[in-house]
């Protein structure tokens, strides 16, 4: 017969067994698809934990989840989620790894940041979580190390330019992850007459050689991958290539 002391020990062992605990996030499987991941931040337990972890940076992190990428179920049962505003995947994006035991790993990039911000509640992991580190490889010249904040450079071309016709409008924006270097990435957004975006194409800014920080730009160059067609938009006469539909 077991005395009361031994019975108490056995009960404690059973109670603290890892198999007796319910996962902290036991509803992750509900959000493992494109149709359902858009609702993941309605999972109140997760949202409360994110707010507690990110504190004042929570709004800055969440603003990128206006669109979602394909969620990924990781080998350890964790869920990888990422989001970004439409057409700004390389300029403004957030990622999250959610482990069932409650550990969270969050990273994000905004145009105002000169580095990738990273926050976790996992006090045992000293390095960047591997799936977050892989996600971050898409951002050129950005690391997880906060650099000295430099003075913003002033470009010789505007950040946004417009062209309007009776049938459609075009908005061309400079899109880079920070404002501390001259930006040579551009985004071509085709809008209907009501201002609704129809498609967006990334491109580059071609510049003349010079010895200044900001060299004069000669044109934008955009290529539509589906058709293989390229569009050059000369900055000296921006109306000319857009006076008729080119795509």
Protein architecture, described:
The protein folds into 2 domains: 17-136, no CATH class; 160-240. The protein is 16% helix and 28% strand. The chain contains 5 helices and 11 strands; from the N terminus they run H-H-H-H-E-E-E-E-E-H-E-E-E-E-E-E. It has helices at residues 4-15, 34-37, 44-54, 58-62, 130-136; strands at residues 72-73, 79-83, 93-98, 104-109, 117-120, 160-164, 168-174, 185-192, 197-207, 217-224, 229-234. Strands 6-7-8-9-10-11 form a 6-stranded antiparallel sheet, with no helix packed on it. The chain has a 5-stranded antiparallel sheet with strand order 1-2-3-4-5, with helices on both faces. The longest helix is centred in the first third of the chain and has 12 residues, at 4-15. The radius of gyration is 24 Å and the shape is globular. The termini are far apart.
Features of this protein?
5 helices, six-stranded antiparallel beta sheet, 16% helix, 11 strands, 247 residues, alpha+beta, disordered C terminus
Task: Summarize this entry quickly.
This protein is an alpha+beta fold and 247 residues long. The chain has helices at residues 4-15, 34-37, 44-54, 58-62, 130-136; strands at 72-73, 79-83, 93-98, 104-109, 117-120, 160-164, 168-174, 185-192, 197-207, 217-224, 229-234.
């Amino acid at each position: 017969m077991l005395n009361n002391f031994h019975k108490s020990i056995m009960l404690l062992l059973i109670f603290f067994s890892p198999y007796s605990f319910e996962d902290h996030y036991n509803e992750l499987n509900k959000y493992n698809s494109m149709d359902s991941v858009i609702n993941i931040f309605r999972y109140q337990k997760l949202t409360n934990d994110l707010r507690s972890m990110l504190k004042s940076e929570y709004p800055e992190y969440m603003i990128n989840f206006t669109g979602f990428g394909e969620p990924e179920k990781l080998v350890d049962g964790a869920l990888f989620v990422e989001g970004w505003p439409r057409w700004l995947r390389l300029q403004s994006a957030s990622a999250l790894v959610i482990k069932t035991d409650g550990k969270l790993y969050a990273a994000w990039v905004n145009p105002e940041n000169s580095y990738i911000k990273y926050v976790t509640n996992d006090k045992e992991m000293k390095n960047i979580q591997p799936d977050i580190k892989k996600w971050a490889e898409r951002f050129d010249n950005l690391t997880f190390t906060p650099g000295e904040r430099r003075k913003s450079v002033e470009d010789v071309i505007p950040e946004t330019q417009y062209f309007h016709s009776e049938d459609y409008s075009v908005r061309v924006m400079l899109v880079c992850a920070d404002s501390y270097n001259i930006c040579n990435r551009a985004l071509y957004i085709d809008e209907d007459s009501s201002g609704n975006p129809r498609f967006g194409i990334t491109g580059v800014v071609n510049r003349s050689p010079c010895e200044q920080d900001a060299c004069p730009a000669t044109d934008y160059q955009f290529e539509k991958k589906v058709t293989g067609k390229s569009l050059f938009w000369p900055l000296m006469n921006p109306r000319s290539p857009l006076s008729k539909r080119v795509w």
